[in-house]
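Please predict the structure of the following assembly.
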Amino acid sequence: MNLNYDVIKITAGVIATIGLYSILYKENRFYRLFEHIFLGLAAGYTIVATWKDTLYPQWWQKMMGQAATADAPAVPGYWIYAALLPIGLLAYLVFNKKHNWMSKIPIGVILGLWSGQQIQVWWNTWGPQIFSSMQPIIPTTFSPLNVPSTMEAVGGKVLPIADPDRAAAVQQQITNNLFVTQALTNFIFVITFISAFSYFIFSFELKGKLMTGVNKFGRWMLMIGFGAIFGSTVMARFALVIDRMAYIVIEWVQALTRGA
Amino acid sequence: MNLFPSMMAQVVEESFFKKVPGPGLYGLLALGLILGIVLCLALSRVPSNMRRWVIVGFTFLAGLPYVAAYLWPTPVAADFQTEIPRNGVEKVGFFLNQAMDPVGTITNIIQGFLLGVGFYSLVRIHYTKVKRRQENWGFSIVLLTCFVLMAVIGLWDWQMRTFVDTTGALNVRDNWTAVNYIQDFLFEGIYQQMDSAMFSMIAFFILSAAYRAFRIRSVEATVMMASALILMLNLMGALTFAQGNAIESLAANSNNMFLMNFKINTFADWLRSTMQIPAIRAIDFGVGLGALAMGLRLWLGLEKGGVT
Amino acid sequence: MFNWLEGQQYLDTGWVGVFATLMVVASILFNIRRAEKGGKNLFIRRIAGLNAIDDAIGRATEMGRPVLMVPGIGALDAISVQAVNIFAQVTKSAAQFSTPVRLCCASAAVYAYAQEVIRDVYTEQGMTDRFLPETVQFVSDQQFAFAAGVSGMIHREKVAATFLLGAFYAESLIFAETSNAVGAIQVAGSTQSTQTPFFIAACDYVLIGDEFYAASAYLTRDPVLVGSLVGQDWAKIFVACTIMLGTLGLSAELTQMTSTHRSGNKMVEVSESSEGKRTEERKKGADTVVSRIFKPYIPEEMTKDRFTREKKPVPEGAEAGGE
C-alpha cells in the first residue's frame, strides 16, 4: 500500500510539474487544467492555514480561554475579542450598495495599525543605516598606501605570514590605521550613497553641470547595484530548476523502479 | 473603541475583561458580540457627512498605541510582566508596552475575517462561468471542486491532529486514515510540487530577460549587465578557483601581494560592499521615507481617495 | 541628560531617534500645509514611467484588449493602497476610452479596498454598467498560485498593457516575461529593491524605488501629496547633509588621540587596557561624537537594577503571564 501510494503521489507531482512547465511553450489546455487545480487547492489551503495559524491560536483560543485540567490551571479568555467579529464582518458590506462605506472601517483599522507601526519603527530601521553610512575618509597614514598583506610569498606559493611576531605587528598596523586605499573605498561608498540618493529628490529642479552630473552618476551607481543583485540571484534560481529536474528524473524514476 | 479593553491583556489574574471558561465567560462573550453588533448598527445610522470622521477616527485610534508607545519614555530595567510601576509616568509606559502585543494581533485577526471577501469574488466569477457555460467553464468546475476538497480535507486533518490524536500518533504514516492520505496527497503530492515548479520557472524567464537586456545598447543597461556578469562569474566555483589560482601564482612569483585584490571573489565583494550596498540603501531609504509619509497621511486621514 | 524623568528614558535610541522622526513628521506636515495654503504649482521632476501610462492605454484601446493591473502580493498596507490609488488614475483614463481593465489582487483585504476605489472611479465616470465582477478580482493569496493564475489570464485575455506596481517578490519576472510574450507594454515598479533589476531587464518602463510613492503626487498634483513629497525631499536633504557632515567630523576625529576608550557602556583607560604599555591611542569609531549621538552612552548604573519595583502578587492557580 505504502509503496504504491508513494508512486502515485510522485507521479501526480511530476505530471503537475510538467503541466505547469508546458506554458513555457505556449498556453494550452493541459496548463489550464493544472492552473485551475493549483488555484483551487491554494484557495482551500488558505482557508485551512488562516484558521490553523491565525484565527484559531490568535483569536479563538485567546477568546475562549482554557478550562482547568488535572495538571494545568485554567487560562482565562478575553471576551472582548468577540466584538472583533462583527467589526471584521463589516468588510463584507463592500458588496452592499447602501452601506458600502462601512467596509472601510475594518480597512481603516488595518491601515491605522500599519501606519502607527511605521512611525514607531522608522528610526530603528534607518538610524543605524544612517550611522553606518558615515565612514572615515581621511587616511591616518600614507605609508604604505594600501593595506599591508597578512600573506607572504614562500617558494612560489602564497601563505599566511609564518613568523608570529611579524604577523601580530602587521595585524596591529592594520587595526590602528586607515590606509589610503581604504579611505578611497570609503569615499566611493559615501559618494555612491549621496549621488544615488540625489536621484530621488523630486521637487527641486537640478540645474547646472555639477548637479546633473551627480544625478547621472547616481543612476549609474544604481545600475551597478541592480546588476549586482541580478547577478547574485541568477545562480539561486538555477539551483531551483536543478532541484525540480532532480525531482522528476531521480526521485520519480527511483520510485517507479522500486514500485515495480 | 474596542481597542482599549483588549489592551488589558497580560494581566495575570482574572479581571473584568478576562474570565476563566464557564457560564460567566460565555455570557460575556455573548455580550461582546452584542456590543460589536450594536456598535455596527449604531455606525450604520451615522449621517453621511459624519462618515468620513468615523473612518478617520477608527484609523487614528488603531495607530495611536504604536505612536504613543514610541513617544512615551520607556521604563528602564523593568519587567513588565511581574513588576508594579512606581509612578504615574511608569504606569503609562507599562500599559503601552503591554498593549503592543494584543494590538498587533488585531491586524492578523481582521485580515483573517476579510478572507471571505476575496473568496466571494473568486467563487462568484467561477460560479457565473459554470452557470452561463462561458468559455473554459469546465476548468472552473475543477477549481471549485479542488477548493472545497482541500478546505474540507485540510480542516478535517487539522481537527484529527489537534483534538482526536493528542499523542502525535498521526505523525507516523502507519496510523493514517484515508483523510490523512488524501490531505498528504493534495498538499505534499500536488500543491507543494506545483509551488516549486512555478518558483523554478523563474530561471527560464531570467534567461530571456537577461538576453533582451544584453541586447539593449544603452550605457545604463551595459553598466548593469556588466556588474551582473561579474557577480555571476563570482558564483561559478570552477572559474573563480582557476582565476584565484592564477592570481596567486602571479602574486607569489612577482612577490607583490597587492595583486591578490584582483581575485574575482575579492573584487566582487568589494563591488558589493562599496557600490551595491550604498546604492540599494539610497533606494530603500527613499522607500522607507515614502512609507513613513504615506503612513502619516493615512493615519491622520489626509490622504484623499485613500481610506476616506 | 539621562536623568530626565527619573527612571525613564529613551533607552534604545536616546533623543536622536525621536528628534529625527518628529523632524521628518514636522517637515512633511509643514509642507502639506504650505502646499494647501499656497496652492501654487510646486515643481516635480519628470518621471518617465508615468508618462507612458497614456501611451499604454491608447495602445490597448487600439487593439481592443484589456489592461492588466497587479498591486503586488503584499497584505493591505500603504504600498498596496498607493498601488491601487495609481491604478484608480489608470482606470479613469481607461474608462474614458471604454478599455476594459483587470485588477488582480493577491490579498482579500486589498481586494476589498480596490473594489471600493475602482467602483467609485466607474461611478464618477457614469459607467457603473462597465464595472464587472472580473474588473477587480481576487485570484489567490498564495504567491505562486497567484503567479500561475495571472500568467494564465495574461495569455488567455492577450492583455495589451500590464501595470505591475507594488510589493513584488520572486514572481515579478513571471508576470513581466509573460506579458512580454504576448506583446504587452509593461510599466512596473517594486518597492522591493531586490526585484527592481528584474523589472529593469524585462519591462518597458520602470519606476525605481521612491518614484513609486511620488507617482500619485505626479499624476494628481493634489496639494496634500505634492506637499508631502516636498517634505520628504527636505528630510532627504537633511539626511544627506547629516551623512556628509558626520563623515567629515568622524574622519577628522579619528585622526586624533585619546586616553580613554568607550567600550559598550563603560569607559576604559588606555593604560589599563594596554597593561601600562601606552597612555594614549588613536581614537576608535566608538569614541567619536557621531557614535555617541547615534549609539547613546548609557552609564552602566542606568541599566542595572537601580530602581526597586515591587513585584506583583502571583494569584493562586494562575501561572504568571499565562499565555
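Helices of chain A lie at 2-21, 29-64, 84-89, 104-133, 164-176, 180-198, 208-259. The first strand of chain A starts at residue 77 and ends at 78.
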